[in-house]
Amino acid sequence: MLKNSEVLYDSLKQGKAVVMATILSKQGSAPRSAGTKMIVHAEGDISGTIGGGWVEAQVQKQATDLFERKEGALIREFTLDSNRYADMDMVCGGNVTLLIEYLPANNDNIKVFSKLLEILSNNQNGFMVSRLQRDKRGNYTLERSIISDRQQTGVFPLGEQTVGQLSKQAELMRSPGLITIDDGTFFVEPARFNGVLYLLGAGHLAVETAKLALHTGFKTVVMDDRGTFANEERFPGSRVHVVEGFEHCFAPFSIGHGSYIVIMTRGHLYDQILLEQALHTPATYIGMIGSRSKRKIIYDYLLSQGVSQEQLDRVHAPIGLSIGAQTPEEIAVSIVAELIQVRFQTI
To answer: Are residues 205 and 186 part of one domain?
Structure first.
């Protein structure tokens, strides 16, 4: 969501209108979920994907018409017939319902999407709500607002009761969806903060863990004292920090609720130094790679230094869900699965 929001905001800020296609709902085995967006630019190029060539081609055709009209929004349902469209990448079956809308580069849109980008970039919770209204001719108009901490940013005012109803339901949503209440039908898109994963150690397992964590919504921060390992080439999409040592590496960050710490350095001593620091943070999750014998050595030392057993009980070690993982790729799956489990339990 963050990447498409950045692309959209940059275009609007430059005075360039776009057409945005959003999946409102899906049925069956359609490849992309509700809330997935694709941005069509006036030049014809696209940003993001809504799942495949045929549907995207149909959206581009609709976009051409909307760019010519310089206004409008429409809702279209597409049936993804695997026999009919097998040569166009749509082999999954299912149906998707799309909202396709023209977004002019006006102050109202810039203001709304600037606020959305602020929420996403600063790890805040909130949601974007779009009220869908249909006229007698079947054309749609949209009014959009951002709700964060019950405060509104947008072009249409919502009553306090409506904001309360929408907020209550949005807090329970793991993905975008349509909500109908007395004031009408709204498409609600939670800008949920999915957590920051701090990976301590930049070895091969960290590479695999970072990939999966990014794909499942975590922001990732990778730290190591070796620049040959900790670099953007090995960790595309992650924030990478080469540190002089591990003694004070958490100092530049605000570790708190929504922070997930995974310790996987190259040695017991480094793991011990990091675990002692991590236990003094209110991180949602602390995990350490290694065997039970390694854990005992480190725990015994920390207990001798005044760390309590209650503090140590916070630590996930050995790390990851028990799925019989052997390879680095499989171990990464077990680790990220545990992170997702903890994230779900603490929402």
So the answer is: no
The amino acid at 222: V
Are the CB atoms for 18 and 8 separated by under 8 Å?
yes
Say whether both 135 and 23 belong to one domain. Answer: no
| Digit-coded pLDDT (tens) for 57-75 | 899 999 999 999 998 899 8
Q: Helix, strand, coil shares of the chain as percentages rounded to 5?
A: 35, 25, 40
* Same-domain check for residues 188 and 233: no
* CATH number for position 273: 3.40.50.720
Task: Please indicate, yes or no, whether residues 78 and 118 belong to a single structural domain of this protein.
Answer: no
3-state secondary structure (DSSP) of residue 33: coil
Total number of domains in the chain = 3
Model confidence over 212-235: pLDDT tens digits?
998 888 889 999 999 999 999 999
User: Greatest CA separation found in the chain?
Assistant: 76
3-state class (DSSP) for residue 5 = helix
Q: How far is CA 129 from CA 76, 113, 190, in A?
A: 20, 12, 9
pLDDT tens track for 141-153? 888 999 987 788 8
Question: pTM of this prediction?
Answer: 0.63
Residue by residue, DSSP assigns 70-103 as T--EEEEEEE--TTTTGGGT--S--EEEEEEEEE
Question: Are residues 131 and 75 both part of a single domain?
Answer: no
